[in-house]
Amino acid sequence: MDTILQGLLDMAGVNAAVLFDGSGRLLAHRGKSVYDRALCEQVGGPLARAIDSLQLQHEDWESATAQFADGTLLLRRVDTISAGPCVLALVADSTLNPAFATVAIRVSSNKLKRALDGGAASSSVGSTGQASALGSLPSYPAATAAGPGGSQVGHPAAASRPGLASSGLSWSRTGGVTTADQPSANYLTACARELARHVGPMSKIFVEEAVRRVCPDLPFSLAASRALADELAGRIDDEDDRQAFLVALKNSGGK
Amino acid sequence: MTDLETVANIAGVSAAVLGDLEGTFLGALRTSDGETIAAEMGFVGSSFLEIGALLGLGTLGTFSLSGPARSCLLVVRPQSLITALVSPPQSLGPVERAIDTAFQEWT
Question: Which CATH superfamily is domain B3-106 in?
Answer without folding.
Answer: Dynein light chain 2a, cytoplasmic (3.30.450.30)
